[in-house]
Recover the amino acids of this structure.
């Protein structure tokens, strides 16, 4: 779809991709300095639109990203979300949360209550990408 920003991406930092999906680092969420998205390539809106095997493929990717982010970042918690209210294209948010992040324990989209405490290393996305690409073999 030509008007879908996930179908026609610009300037993404792709960490890992397969024929079915891609994983990107998100750097424009002010309250979430360590944030990835798993994006299904086909333009569909809901998990239930996928056949069971594709659902399993997508969830396996979400869990691979979570595992890699936990290993690299050692967060207090990982948040997983599949919203799609603004962009109705199937994608999952994988968000590293820290007890001293701007919004914790509220969602990262809430009003910030403090400045970020723990910040990820500058190369966190490259470290996650290395783990994702290594786990393929």
């Amino acid at each position: 779809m030509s008007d879908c920003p996930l179908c026609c991406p610009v300037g993404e930092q792709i960490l890992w991709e397969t024929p079915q999906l891609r994983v990107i680092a998100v750097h424009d969420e002010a309250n979430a300095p360590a944030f990835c998205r798993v994006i299904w390539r086909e333009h569909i809106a809901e998990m239930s639109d996928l056949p069971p095997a594709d659902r399993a493929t997508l969830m396996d990717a979400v869990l691979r990203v979570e595992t890699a982010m936990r290993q690299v970042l050692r967060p207090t918690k990982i948040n997983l979300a599949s919203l799609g209210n603004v962009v109705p294209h199937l994608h999952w948010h994988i968000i590293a949360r820290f007890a001293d992040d701007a919004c914790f324990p509220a969602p990262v989209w809430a009003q910030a209550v403090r400045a970020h405490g723990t910040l990820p290393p500058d190369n966190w996305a490259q470290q996650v990408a290395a783990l994702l690409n290594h786990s393929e073999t």
Observations:
- The first strand starts at residue 13 and ends at 17.
